[in-house]
Amino acid sequence: MNERTNQQPIIEVIDLHKRYGDREVLKGISLRVYEGETVVIIGPSGTGKSTLLRCINLLTKPDRGVIKLDGVEITTPGTDEDKVRQHIGMVFQDFLLFNHLTVLNNVMIGLTKVLRMDPKEAEARAIKELERVGLGDHIHQYPGQLSGGQKQRVAIARSLAMDPRVILFDEPTSALDPELIGEVLEVMRMLAQEGMTMIVVTHEMGFAREVADRIIFIEKGVIVEEGPPDEMFYRPKVERTREFLWKITELYGHRKESEPHP
Amino acid sequence: MFLQSLEYILMGTGVTVAVTLIALPFGFLLGLLLALVRVYGGRVAGYVVGFYSTTMRGIPPVVLLFIIYFIIAGSINISPFLAGSLALGIISSAYQLEIFRGALQAVGAGQMMAARSIGMSRLQAIRHIIIPQALRLAIPPWSNEAATVVKDSSLVYAIGVPEILRRAQFISARTYRPFLAFTIAALIYFALTFLTNRLLDFVEARTRIPSLHEMGEV
């Protein structure tokens, strides 16, 4: 990260706090994500990872702290939130495709209604993105006719079509049958290679180890440790990191696509 | 004799249909608008709409009809037919509001969140994502309400509008054959509600979103 200090981060989070009732979910999170980086956020459930992502694209309002997109603060009152969200894609655990629209229209609707793009142009762009995630043959189907893996890939295409600065992934494979996880991770791996900036909350340690430029371990609302995968997996500075990674790899790490390459 | 009675009562069908065609769409627009306010309009507006709904649904339609009719007729100069139709529409709006509220809530917060995440405004999300799905969910209960409005249109008889029931009563009084007169009225009402329900079944089938389940693959 040191070589990046003179570069402007795409996303910068400074001392973020969020409380639900008397439970403080985020207790002062600060992080920077630079262009082309894939940052994987890990941590036990209920430690505020999803809340952090929702704060970043303004779906949840933080109590305190600053978030910047390309150096511009987006947490000031009067920010055009809709405009900000155009530049920050989001992929949800439970897909959240628009159930009444075909695959093609799911991807097109943001282009035609939000970006006010010409329908012909929007269709071409949507088809391009759907082909990119391997769904060129399914454009006229409805979400209800797709498998979970296909749905999630449509959701990724929907985000991609808006040409975002960064895409947030909130446990994108947690709702999938094990045999469908691979196809989604494959698309994410491809995006990472193509230089898309991504923040990924996941339990897929194989993906984290292979694809992440940086892993951030969050627990109880604070960042315990962060660093490149090798350091986090093999030379963590905090004992708790070692413990968590060992446990989570034990739980999730034995699938084929997650197998480490020693 | 029978044919004459039938013809005379049938002439009221047009009035009954007209009352329904005013009351139902009017109740639809008002009900949908109020449901949107109830679900998305914030706490205070939500309470106001909730009060409207609870009050309106807690009073028999015929009592409300008289109250609303005399308010409308007392303030502007319109025919009993129009005043009665609008009054029925207002009454129906309270029931339709609950149908649409349930449907809007059934669409789920996730759809709104997904729509906002691609940069849609709240209004765009409601218009392009929430309402198209909610209306589909609302068809079966709405079909029930439509049948209710067809039947409740008979209430405008009480304020002197010559629809089916009023004509049937006239025949009954003149011929001393109440059974014949009211049976004719009953058959016409049944035919109307039956057609209404069939029509809405058709709309439901036409707007159904394809899924694996309906293709019989699951």
Tell me briefly what this model is.
The complex is a heterodimer of chains A (262) and B (218). With 262 residues, chain A is α/β, with parallel strands linked by helices. Chain A is built from 9 helices and 10 strands.
Account of the 3D structure:
The complex is a heterodimer of chains A (262) and B (218). Chain A is of the alpha/beta class and 262 residues long. Helix content of chain A is 37%, strand content 23%. Chain A has 9 helices and 10 strands. In chain A, the strands form 2 sheets. In chain A, strands 6-7-8-3-9-10 form a 6-stranded mixed sheet, sandwiched between helices. In chain A, α3 (103-114) packs across α4 (119-132) and α5 packs parallel to α6 (178-193). The longest helix of chain A has 16 residues, at 178-193. The model of chain A is unreliable at 255-262 (pLDDT under 50). With 218 residues, chain B is mostly helical. Helices cover 82% and strands 0% of the residues of chain B. Chain B is built from 8 helices and no strands. Chain B has helices at residues 2-40, 43-57, 61-75, 80-107, 109-117, 122-152, 164-175, 178-207. In chain B, α7 (164-175) packs antiparallel against α8 (178-207). The termini of chain B are far apart. The chains are: A alpha/beta (262), B mainly alpha (218).
Oligomeric state of the chains? heterodimer
Strand content of chain B: under 5%
What's the helical proportion of residues of chain B?
over 70%
The SS-based structural class of chain B is mainly alpha
The description of the largest β-sheet of chain B is: none
Instruction: Report the total helices of chain A.
Output: 9
**Distance separating the two termini of chain B:** 59 Å
How many whole angstroms does the radius of gyration of chain B measure?
Answer: 21 Å
How many E strands of chain A?
10
The string of secondary-structure elements of chain B, in order, is: HHHHHHHH
Q: Which bin fits the share of residues in helices of chain A?
A: 25-40%
Radius of gyration of chain A: 18 Å
> Which pair of protein chains has the largest interface, and what are the residue counts?
A-B, 28 and 24 residues
